Amino acid sequence: MTQNKDVTRNKDLTGTYDVVVVGGGAAGLSAALVLGRSRLRTLVVDAGEPRNAPSAHMQGYLTRDGMSPAEFLALGRDEIARYGVELVRDRAVDVSRDEDFAVRLAGGETVHARRLIVTTGLRDELPAVPGVAERFGRDVLHCPFCHGWEVRDERFGVLATSPLSVHQALMVSGWSDDVTLFLHTVAEEELSDDELRRLAAAGVKVVPGEVAALRVEDDRLTGVRLADGTAHDRTVVFVAPKPVPQTGLMERLGAQLQETPFGSYPVVDPTGRTSVPGVWTAGNALGFAEQVVHAASGGYRAAAAVVGDLIMSDLDAAVAG
Fold it and tell me: Residue 88 CB: number of other CB atoms within 10 A?
């Protein structure tokens, strides 16, 4: 793994940046790379809490398939440093706007920027079943595209968190012929006849009753135990966490949000431009299903739009002056 070259507290954060990127994950670093290469003074504010931190590896990113998320981000931080992009380990706790944006950091400093790219992502809220949080990212998983190949043909369980978990059970049946849907807190009568027929066609067994805990032996998931004491042998459990978008900064700026079945997210145009002039977003900050490759692409797209916006704004000011 390459060495981090994070900018720390000895860096002078005064003056106005062209762009402050809030969030140092795939979306934020990708945006910062484009901004740095465009010769813009750029600061990345990184709280160091990437969504995929529990995972030992990431999949589906061409040329980076199987790389650990930590190594991926370390390489990204090295790359942006080559172009003079600054990075500070801190959390943005407030933002306001007068002529420029003022971003207040938890460490006490306030940084100023002409434009903002907010890539604060989301937090996964897991069901309070003993063993789920401890095993998450190992043999408790959420995405078959991320992890399905690695656990193919194992004995899958799907822990229902809502009726939408039926869709998850149907999807993961593409990676294993042995799938059991544990309804947990979902009542069997909440499933439609069409859903039950599809589950039967996919060979998915449906088990009612609340799940009490996961069974773990020698640091390996071995099964699921129900509240009535019955146990089912399983080696992998899929779960759909409740996504909690980190929209605090957007709300402070008065950005327009839209409600979805997976949380409230900013309304954006195809470049990630929000309803607040001068503010863009990318990655899981604009949707729960953004994978690493999508986040990196979205960060690039947002940064390119910001570069064009700043160039044209400066030219318009020069013409007016």
Answer: 20
